[in-house]
Amino acid sequence: MRKKVMIIGAGIAGLSAGCYLQMNGYDTEIVELHNQPGGLCTSWKRKGYTIDGCIHWLMGSSPSDEFYSLWNELIDMKSIQFINHDVSMQFEDRTGNVIRFFSDVDRLEKELLEKAKQDKKMILSMTKAIRKLRTFKLPVSKAPETYTFLDFIRFFWDLIPYYGELNKWIRISASEYANNFQTPLLRKAIRGMFWPDMNMLFIILMMVWFDKKTAGYPIGGSLAFSRLFEKRYLELGGKIHYKSKVIKIITEKFTTIKDKATGILLDNEQSYSGDIIISAADGHYTLFEMLSEIYHTDQIKNYYSTYPMFSSYIQVSLGIQRTFDQEPHMASMALNSPIVIDPMTSVEDISLRIFNFDPTLADKGSTLITLMFTTYNHDYWNQLRQQDPDTYKKEKDRIANDIIDVLDKRYGNIRSQVEMIDVSTPATVIRYTNNYKGSYEGWVWTPQIGFKTMSKELPRLKNFYMIGQWVEPGGGLPPALLSGRNVCQLICMQDHKPFVVR
Ligand SMILES: Cc1cc2nc3c(=O)[nH]c(=O)nc-3n(C[C@H](O)[C@H](O)[C@H](O)COP(=O)(O)OP(=O)(O)OC[C@H]3O[C@@H](n4cnc5c(N)ncnc54)[C@H](O)[C@@H]3O)c2cc1C
Fold this sequence. Notes:
Layout: E1 4-8, H1 12-23, E2 27-31, E3 43-46, E4 49-52, E5 58-59, H2 66-74, E6 82-83, E7 87-92, E8 98-102, H3 105-115, H4 120-133, H5 149-159, H6 163-170, H7 174-178, H8 184-192, H9 200-211, E9 215-218, H10 222-235, E10 239-241, E11 246-253, E12 259-266, E13 271-273, E14 276-279, H11 283-290, H12 298-306, E15 312-320, E16 330-342, E17 345-354, E18 367-375, H13 378-387, H14 389-411, E19 418-424, H15 426-433, E20 461-462, E21 464-466, H16 477-494
Parallel strand pairs: 1-2, 1-14, 2-10, 7-16, 12-20, 14-21
Antiparallel strand pairs: 3-4, 5-9, 6-9, 7-8, 11-12, 12-13, 15-18, 15-19, 16-17, 17-18
Helix pairs in contact: 1-10, 1-16, 3-4, 4-9, 6-9, 13-14, 13-15
């Protein structure tokens, strides 16, 4: 008889697990609190604009990367038009100095050497690593949980040529490395390219993927991308229950030292039973709300009390009735005076995404611009929304107004051309995705975490697995996909079945 698997969460991890398990002879159902798929990988509509809320770049967007074939197992990658930008990001200081991060490593090297002569040694060290790691392939085809002794030998053998670079860059954070640059703008750029506490290896790999043109943006945006996974999952026979919030994982005694998961309970008191339960939802809510503390290990408590998390964020989106053809798609610029975001957060730079490259998001002649401001002050925004909705709205309007002022000065006459304003806050992220503290990507992949992995299983609970960004430090869409694939391989191995892809 086919086993029944209940999956919590229709983000990319949950949909990925659902697809692979359906392919492998399991009957699966997904329960999702929102009314649509994708979780964080989403977009929304306002006044004729499609506001994108996620994908800046997708690792594995071209066949030159090993992730491409994994995406292709679930969706038809050829049906998506990916945009690879010549300049991945541009940084500008207050005096108008500009550093462009070209995707092509040769052009990047030339630009950095021109703009930051005194940092030659460090620049060449970075570009040497980019060139070396161009041929490095992440071992993604087989789940590490299913490795045999021989697989481990092969894994370490394949790593040998790259070990020096991998080991060097993973030990230092972006901000530690950046501190050694003499050129202030380059220092700021390396810190701001992704996340200051992230290890430098990730920043280098990012530049490798840009260079290989395998970190593109999918035309149509993030929700359209997520919908492809929903479609495939439904075609494979899966079922999704939207607007269904899980509040409890039902367990029963299995042995004297171990229980087993047998079902899930929703907030409307409906329950579903399953032979296997997978949570692809927020990690903290899963462990600390859906499950009893008897299942928490010291290691888990340690993660949630000491590991740094990506913060939450405010997203300001503007629909502007004009084009920005000559502007870079992504630019960070220093402000003349700081903008206050909330009582704990103010910013001295803004980072713009000008969607002049995706004609599907706005009518001809109009452009979507988005700005993201990270903040750890999720409690403030959550409480304000619940307790004082008027001030909540006023604060959102104030931030949007401050941004429009800046853009008005920069581009001239913007205010009269703004026809759509949308501001989402950490309260929005929490409401729609339930992510802990409104985090946008789970755990930061720090030098301290290094190559350590997190377990998908709990030692005291059988038939239960966790997947997605809360067990894959660094987060992101490729690890979400991989997490769903790997858990299926693990379950197949435990059921003595071969893992198949169809
Ligand atoms: C602004 C932004 C930009 C990003 N840019 C990129 C990028 O360029 N490239 C990239 O690779 N990644 C990017 N990411 C990160 C990426 O989107 C996430 O890491 C990834 O989508 C996480 O997928 P997931 O399935 O693990 O989790 P989620 O997307 O959080 O999915 C979890 C799902 O579980 C549901 N859920 C939660 N609790 C419950 C419950 N109790 N009951 C039922 N359902 C529940 C949620 O509603 C959600 O649908 C970005 C994220 C953001 C927010």
